[in-house]
Design a protein that fits this description.
This protein has 153 residues and is α+β, with helices and mostly antiparallel strands. It has a domain of 102 residues: K homology (KH) domain (GMP Synthetase, Chain A, domain 3). It has 4 helices and 5 strands. The strands form 2 sheets. It has a 3-stranded antiparallel β-sheet with strand order 1-2-3, with no helix packed on it. A two-stranded antiparallel ribbon has the order 4-5. Helix 2 packs across helix 3. The longest helix has 23 residues.
Amino acid sequence: MKDETARRVVHTAAFGNPGPLQEGTVDVAYVSGELYRISAGGHRLMTDQPGSAGGGNLAPTPVELFVTSLAACMAYYAGRYLHRHGRTRDGLRVETTYTMAEDRPARVARVTMRIAVPAVLTERQREVLLSVVRHCTVHNSLRQPPEIEVELG
């Protein structure tokens, strides 16, 4: 209950009142080699592997997309916060580095996010912005992982 209340406070600070729960679908289909086509929300993109892993390096890897989704989510939350407080988003950037674990299972071991904020903010505004960003949907999903069911069709 405490986490839900905190989430609603942060969400309201960034976006206004929380909306209804949403559901979505993503479809990933084989194309060739290590290239896959992704359909999500009416959009299409691709994922591939580098040549060293048998791919053609024609698109981001799934791991890059994973880290990208976290960075993009944080950028969105930061941008909404700035907009709601009358600040510019021009120049807003989230620079991200990640390190893979050296042991098994294969996974991302560390992600470092550096948020470049174009507006001059007070210390309190910076604290609130960091709190808002740290509660983006993707980050929340990593901190409280979803149930994942895998079935064969």
